[in-house]
């Protein structure tokens, strides 16, 4: 499934065809900027824009000899030009083109990822509204804690999606820079106004200062944001996986007609899509680490970052895009079992209402420590004996002297714990 998806829109961004198309766009923009400054004839710039073409296959052939992809690209394009070819790549170093093109590619990728986050947010919002009042147990440390609603889980994730969207926009801004500053960033053969003109034409900002390359802190920032998003998607996946366990079975990822869960056991419905998200998140986090290690380079540049970046940027973008689409599909088609949630709420025999009893006793005048110890004593008996907590508490004379049977029974109702659910939704603006 992942392999098929990489041939879709995000995959096309990272094809050699699109990469070299960005190279050519930059080269043509440089030619027109040079023509505006009177450095090369306008006729030459117009001819280059009209005639320049390339072939990925031909570039590969030339690269077998040159062992340099940008030289292979410029020579391939030159074959489609006449006299004007002498003005192609005029005054540029390779990474004027490569790094500026990378910024354009990353911008396109971020735009798709933003759409992916928006789609996920839409799925989460719909489920949050649908299950705002679907009662279930909340768990801390994997142990039953107090009642919540399923809608609160979805609302939490929906709110976090908005933060990731904002982070991605800021990271996109951090990589939306170009540089046309020459071999060591000194504008030795082209002045800064050429760079400003070219970046304007391309919809980028000109780097305030550069070496042979754009500095890698911005790129690392973007990769770390992608790692955070991947970890967020894994958080959702882990929750679904946990709640899909046979003995829990409150949620279940979509299982389709004809789908098989096991080659050996016909009954299996495994959370394979969620498990896949967990595995892929590990890759994206690892790419973030590589991006951090690409920041320190020798002097004005070495190429220790180059080979790694040809892997981490396409892979991370494709993986996160795929993960976002998978997560949206899982959330939209999630199987929800409210009756099982009700059964699970009753598993502990009312232990989940222990805090309410403790606070009710405090309100009657005893210290919190006394109330805690008193309720805990019966809670531990309830755990060990499997006896409902309320039936144990009602037999205690001290508790009976402080709480009427009606007051004690009221402590074992979920509505008090959930009275602010609507307020939380209103505060989020999710209604």
Structural notes for this entry:
The protein is mainly alpha-helical and 431 residues long. The chain folds into three domains: 1-90, Fumarase C, Chain B, domain 1 (Orthogonal Bundle), CATH 1.10.275.10; 92-254 and 267-346, Fumarase/aspartase (Central domain) (Fumarase C, Chain A, domain 2, Up-down Bundle), CATH 1.20.200.10; 351-411, Fumarase/aspartase (C-terminal domain) (Ribonucleotide Reductase Protein R1, domain 1, Orthogonal Bundle). It is built from 19 helices and six strands. It has helices at residues 2-5, 9-13, 16-36, 42-51, 56-66, 69-78, 94-130, 150-174, 192-202, 217-243, 272-293, 306-332, 338-345, 354-363, 368-385, 389-393, 397-402, 405-410, 421-428; strands spanning 135-140, 143-149, 177-178, 205-206, 251-252, 335-336. It has a two-stranded antiparallel sheet with strand order 1-2. A two-stranded parallel sheet has the order 3-4. A two-stranded antiparallel ribbon has the order 5-6. Strand 3, helix 9 and strand 4 form a beta-alpha-beta unit. Helix 3 crosses helix 7. The longest helix has 37 residues, at 94-130. It is elongated, with a radius of gyration of 30 Å.
